[in-house]
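Example (one chain per record):
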Amino acid sequence: MQCAHRPNMTWLYSRHIMQISWLIAASSLLFAFTSPATATEPREFILSNGMKVLLVEVPKAPVATVQVWYKVGSRNEVMGRAGLSHMLEHMMFKGTAKYPKGTFSRLIRKNGGMDNAFTSQDFTAYFENLAADRVELALELEADRMQGLVLDMSELTTERAVVKEERRLRAEDDPQGALVEALFAQAYLSHPYHWPVIGWFGDLDAMTLDDLQRHYDTYYSPNNATLVVVGDIKADTLLPTIKQLFEPIPRGPEPKPIATMESEQKGERRFLLKRDAQVPFVMMGYRVPNFTSEDSYALDILDSILSHGKSSRLYQNLVYEQKSSLAVGAEYSSLQTDPGLFYFYALVSPGQKPEVVEEALHREIKRLQADPPTEQELQRAKNQVEATHVFEQDSNFRHAMLLGQAESVGAGWRKIDQFVERIRAVTTKDIQRVARQYLTEDNRTVGTLIPVPPKQPEAPSTAAQQGRP
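Predicted structure:
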């Protein structure tokens, strides 16, 4: 459910201080020119250096999106260097020997396009949205910085300050964002999902050029990347240009797989976070499987039944009937490299107690565990999930994003074509089963934001007022 109070839970960080959902929405307005009916199936190519290329021909309008996805995110970092992937994303715009600082984005804008990038727990992606006859420019620029990035200490100092300010905005000064961050830290004790994508202040201060160079050399190689181009292109015509630009880039080392897996949770974890805030905020997270499990489709439907739209169970109970919450919802994404969180959140109404809201959330979960949803409720949820999946591909940008994400987390783009069929096969018994199996007390992490009065500035002493030492 989309709402103004919803915290940024997608764990995507852009080099510009903005929510990635805004970025996607803006891109969709500018480039919403294709529907799945007019798009061909992706054509897949593997270059001699191991880089995967996905090309989708959409001849509806003379525009295209070029995206390069690297299989590296915060999960590929180590304790003490949290935020390294996001910092490197910022540094990727600082120039190469051929295209110095500022040239990349200036050239894209000069040719009528827009560019940006984002980092998540599992991947880092760069994109250009522009006219179809300017695609080769974007490809040349991306190929150049895949191997020719120039890292400079003065630029690192500048970007470190920018990222720290971004952290203040997103977490330090945003109590709901701080609670999201704390929830993941409590739910994952050993897995790298423990730390935030943007990193912590201490880690950002400790980051060196050598850290960035090593990260770049390890992960920014063609065999660890996927190039996705969607738009008014001809795959057979564009492929020779792609080979000419990217195949000279040597294959890099194969990144070591992440061996740290989170052990089974043996009991409920609970914490309080006291911050300057207007009203309390409650979150509950349950560790659940990702796309590798057939249960992921039932979990998608479960999410829809509980939280999608004003007819959802959570909205009807907590917002409409009880009026205990200003906003309520749940979130689940199967497209993650490792098993993630199915989490609930509720913004507590003024004068209401967070314990009452938490109990109402528990009650809705228990109701679903005791009695499966009705067939009508199931069909409505399936329609919502299927419609969201189809509309997600209603622009070149969104379509390419879905392909790139599926490839980067290990699902593969063909998994997308299977999604609707699998969703339609989910039964009411499947919903009840996954609710009983995963939404259990021992698998639960609960965090509550407790508002505290803002700190008042200290009054100056009498001596200071009179100017005495």
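Caption: The longest strand covers residues 444-452.
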